[in-house]
């Protein structure tokens, strides 16, 4: 079967928070048409979900006794989300003290947002007036957002006004059938990096297959593959006869990644310090070996470095056939 890749343009990573989405901080709920705000139920006309906007004249409340209350926002198309903010219902005793955030591209398939340490609970409000904003420690993309209240003011009921911060998501989605590949060719001279970022999302039904591969003439490589539905990162910054400490490092992440849902992978490397992120869960480690730079250039053929993104079940290092370039997911921020 196939393999989908969501190709993210991570332009010009130049700061610690460089996402290539500078200024991506618009409030997204306020401008929505009222049909975009839905809920499991509501308490009365003036607590319908359409009132769940920050600083609005009331707020959303579910029916008393709703066993599974939720508020749902349809952003109409995919957005990148970086923060969430809540407020109680105007001039009331109704506010939410703890909640969960779910997101997805379809209304029948939700992913919980996990905070650091796999805790999906957000702290909400302490009164009806103050807006409490949480900047998310990883950004996600979704069309639909659900807020699930878990606890609320014991002297009132659930009352919620919601803000979401982010921007429309610009991306290309590419489909691979197991044989295709796309390549990213570095600008000349930019393929010896001290600092780099790889980030992309994928979904597939396959348990095994190569997702990304790049190698240089000096034996450096970076490979991301699925094996038994786990994600493996293999990386080496090289080794040499003089410094024979082997440079190879393998780290695995996740389980059941062939579930046909999008998974977000990100590798941040500075020297040998590496953060390997899968769906918001970060593993930090130090690469083996003595080298600090990833050299993906090929001095033999005098070609620049190339990164290959491949679909499932393909062999690697074989199909160097395309010269068509898509600067799709990788930008070495600086050429040190
Ligand atoms: C998870 O969050 C809740 C509320 O935000 C908190 O009470 C709890 O201690 C947290 N658990 C962990 C393991 O951090
Ligand atoms: C609401 O709570 C915030 C603290 O979160 C506080 O600064 C503010 O004064 C409170 N507002 C009222 C009206 O009590
Ligand atoms: C890894 O994450 C930590 C904590 O967020 C951060 O301080 C560090 O700079 C990151 N390292 C890299 C190489 O991005």
From TrEMBL:
Q: Which domain of life is it from?
A: Eukaryota
Does the keyword Membrane feature in the UniProt annotation?
A: yes
Listed A to Z, the keywords are: EGF-like domain, Membrane, Repeat, Signal, Transmembrane, Transmembrane helix
**All copies of domain F5/8 type C, residue ranges:** 24-167
Per UniProt, what is one Pfam family of this protein?
A: F5_F8_type_C
One Gene Ontology cellular component annotation held by this UniProt entry: membrane
What Gene3D superfamilies does the annotation carry?
A: 2.60.120.200, Galactose-binding domain-like
- The record's principal subcellular location, in a coarse class, is membrane
Per the record, the similarity remark reads: Belongs to the neurexin family.
UniProt protein name: Contactin associated protein 1
Q: Which organism is it from?
A: Pipistrellus kuhlii (Kuhl's pipistrelle)
